[in-house]
Design the sequence.
């Protein structure tokens, strides 16, 4: 199963790279990448549908590594697309454009600060809480097991969620988005 997940993810990355070659505008490239992520995420759900994990470690690996890799990319491209939609028009005042990107930077940093403990868990590769964060509960309706964060890319089915995989994906997306925004700021400020 791990090989299928890896192949699907690598295929998605190749397809996203192709988006950059096929489309001239950044907005078209973003749309293509988002659609590519969505299509591959749905393919992953088909692979996963009603399958049991052989071991707890397999389940942890899926919800800590595989699922957030796909849903994190979806969330990242949603952030990038939103920025492309609301970005000041080309030819706008450089200060206005810089202010826009600085605001985006603050939003992403704020999210990571609000989730600092889990962000640190992600960045340092810690594992001591994996069985709590990345294993599904026995009783999906149990209110004592709250969902830390559920993006709109999360799935309704309990079988496809752990309590923290959504937060892990959101953190990965914001981390990647921070790099994107910093590059945009450098570009604007070097003009």
Sequence:
């Amino acid at each position: 199963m791990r090989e299928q997940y890896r192949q699907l993810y690598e295929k998605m990355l190749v397809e996203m790279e192709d988006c950059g070659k096929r489309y001239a505008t950044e907005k078209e490239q973003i749309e293509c990448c988002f659609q590519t992520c969505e299509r591959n995420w749905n393919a992953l759900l088909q692979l996963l549908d009603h399958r049991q994990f052989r071991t707890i470690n397999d389940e942890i690996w899926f919800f800590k590594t595989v699922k957030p890799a796909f849903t994190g990319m979806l969330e990242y491209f949603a952030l990038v697309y939103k920025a492309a939609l609301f970005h000041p028009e080309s030819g706008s005042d450089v200060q206005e454009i810089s202010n826009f990107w600085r605001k985006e930077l603050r939003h992403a940093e704020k999210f990571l600060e609000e989730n600092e403990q889990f962000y640190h868990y992600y960045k340092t590769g810690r594992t001591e809480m994996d069985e709590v964060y990345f294993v599904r509960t026995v009783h999906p309706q149990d209110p004592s097991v709250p969902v830390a964060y559920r993006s709109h890319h999360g799935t309704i089915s309990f079988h496809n969620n752990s309590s923290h995989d959504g937060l892990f994906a959101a953190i990965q997306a914001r981390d990647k988005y921070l790099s994107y925004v910093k590059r945009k700021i450098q570009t604007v400020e070097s003009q």
In short: Residues 142-150 have pLDDT under 50 and may be disordered.
